[in-house]
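RECORD CONTENTS
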Amino acid sequence: MTYRAITLEKRPITDIHADLFRLTILDKPTLKAGQVLVKLSHISLDPAMRGWMSADENSYISPVALGDIMRASGIGYVVESNNEAFPKGTRVMGLLGLTEYAVSDGKKLHKIPDSLSAEAILCVIALPGITAYHGLFEVLKPEAGQTIAITAAAGSVGSLVGQMARNKGLKVIGVAGTKEKCDWLTKELKFDHGLNYKDDDFITQLAAAAPNGIDLFFENTGGIAQAPIFDAMNAHGRIAVCGMIADYNKVEPAPGPSWLGIIKKRLTLQGFTMPDHFDRISEYGQALGGMLARGELSYRAHIVNGLEHAPEGISLLFSGNNKGKVIVKL
C-alpha cells in the first residue's frame, strides 16, 4: 500500500506558494512496538504553520525540516495498532501532519468521541478553541462590563474569543477585513460592533464604538488596525498578543506601538503560544465542549477537498479569502 503526503521543500521568504511543497508518494510503514497507524479524515490549516516553515530555531517550536512532512493538526481513526491504549477503531486527534496516514507512538494523541463532527472539533475544541480560551481567560482575565477589541475577529480564534467575551457580559468590538465578515460578526455572532479596518474612517468608527476606551485587546494580526486600538486603550488595560499575521509574510516586521504608551497607561502585554500549555488541553477541551453543547458557541468551516489542495488552503489564511476555519477534508 502507498499513501500521499505533502512535504516542505523550500522555506518561504514572503508569500506562500505551491512550489514550497511537494506531493509525495510513500510506502506504508511497518509498525514498531507501541506504535499506531492513523488514517486521517480531516486536517486543520492554521496561521501558525507559517512560523513552522521558517528556519528560526529560536521560536517556540522547532521548524519543520526540509523534506519532512509538513506539520499540521488532524483527526483520524487508528487502523492498525501495537498500542493497547489506542486499539483499532479509536478516533484520535494530534499533530499528525499533512498526510493521508501517520504513525504515532500515542504520546501526543488525544482520544475524541464519535458523537462530535470533525468540523466542530477542529473549529472549537482543537487549537483555535484552546488558544481562544487560554488567551481570554488566563491572559486577559475579563470582567463583565469591560470593552474588548479583537483583530482577525472573523477568524477561527477571534470569533471564539468574541463569543466567550460576549457571554461573560463584555462589550465586544470585532475587527475584520471585509463587510461580509463584519456583518457575520454582528448579525450571526452578536458582537456589539464589526469594524472593517480597510474603511477610510476606521479610526472614527473605532472611537464611536468605544467612547469610553478599550480595556482588553486580543491581538491576532498586527498591521494597520493595531495602532488605533492601542491608542484607545484605557489605563491598566491588558493586551494578549496571539498572532501577527500581517507580518508573517514580510521580510521585516512593521514597527510596533511606542513603549511610552505602555508606561503612561500602565498596560500589561503578554505574548503566548499554546505549546507552553498543552498540559491543559483536556481541561480547556472539556470547558469548550460544554459551551458547544449548551449552544453558546457558533463556528463556520471553510472546507478544502483533497490533500493536494492543502497548499492553496494555507494561502487562503494569508489572503483573507477564507470564510471560517480552513479544514482539508480527505
Q: What stands out?
A: DSSP finds ten helices and 15 strands in the chain. Residues 261 and 305 are 46 Å apart (CA to CA). The first strand starts at residue 2 and ends at 8. The mean pLDDT is 93.
